[in-house]
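Fold this sequence, please.
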Amino acid sequence: MRKRGGSALSDVSGHAGRRALVVGIAVVVVTAVAMSFGTERGVGALASAAPTVPSAAVPSRTTAEPEECVGSRFATFGAVYDAIFDSLLPTMPADIQQRAPSIKARAHRDMQGLRISKLAVSNHPYDLGADDEDPIMTYRDPISQWIVTQLLNVRNGEATEAIPAENLTVAQAVETVWLYLYVTVMVPLTIARRTIPSIATIAGPISVGTLITLPILLGVFAATQVYQAVSARLVEACIVSVTHSEKENAGKSVKDLRFTRAVPGLLRDIAGQVDLADPENCPSIGTLPLSRIVERTSNYLQSITTDSATDRRIAAMGDGVAQWMRNTRVHQNLIPADPADYNTAEYAISQIGVLIPYVGGAPLDVVIGLSHNRNQGADFAATAPIADLSVTKTLTAAYYAYALTAHMVELAWSEAGVDPAAALLNDLLPDAGITADMIPKSTGLVGAPNLYGLVVYHNVLRSMCLAEDKRPAGAGATTKRGSVSAARW
């Protein structure tokens, strides 16, 4: 983290334009996340503490305590509020200026009394202990990042803890607001785009449906790029000056408050078996061979049974599957590269290519993925036992198989068959003459489990490792490989 000395007020005069923008963004995202939680009541995601927090519990700034200018990971709602309030104070009426200390104290008491469940907050990977080389920095989406955050919370026994709005950081607000926007806006828009019919042809492959879907495609892409830029820049920006105690409390929960909802036993069991992946000290689950997964599954099933005969049957079946996997070879390099591994040019072609009739989408992605493998020096003639295939290779193959199947079904329905939705409406309204070009396409929903199910699951597996594989301190484990000063996308 880049450090800068001086107070927030003195910095404002020297960097007015830049810091006004950064702090403005910070206020917007923090306020948005607070307001989004504000509709919930009781012991859900957010609850107001019943008793008023005493004045002694409200953090107060000591002018003698040194300060440093920090980015979004340590810029709390309380600190941002103070910076904005102090900068605006000279322009306020005289009576407001006289009551400024009491106004600020009351605001901090209110922010301390507003508690947000950790289960409702998504953290930046840096706050999870990741650095620039860890897989979660590359393989993540808002949903998978939230899942990883919550698994680590459960693993660390922090699932029932609550964070006061006073301690909520700008980074947590940015990631959480984007998560909710992604789930409630971006995903539905993407599904809707894939369901929009052609309606009517304008010229060649261009139809009315194309003109409708293009703004949605560009809008989702632009919003994603803006989020990525904001998230990365706020981490290393100089947002507000904080004291050492304020920095220590940034993003921290309240130890004396617990929410009553219990974590299901199955979730606790899963969380206890995983940890954040580190390529040197804890390889991700995505890199493990299938033979390891089969062996581990067989051992687990045997551990939960009480009948020795059942144990022997499970062991025999596991050995049979393992033997078949060792004897069956596949051309692993013919599995196209995962879209998450595309470079910038490949990603741009893939995104634009969805507008190309017939070959756009999954077929084009296969070509891009194979070209990526070839450029990486992969030998298409080489084979390997299925037992040696990684989890990532297997899930990538499943992703392309599903995507190609959905694409072919869409072509069949549009060229030689009838979309099930259109067929149903024609049965209900036989005289309406409804065609597939008039109503939303069913294939938009068919592809959703692949994009927002398998991909999310895959990202979680690539971001986490088995806790049993983590190398403990003193056993050759390496330290982190550098400062975590800026996000890498």
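The CA atoms of residues 350 and 365 lie 6 Å apart. The two ends are 18 Å apart (CA to CA).
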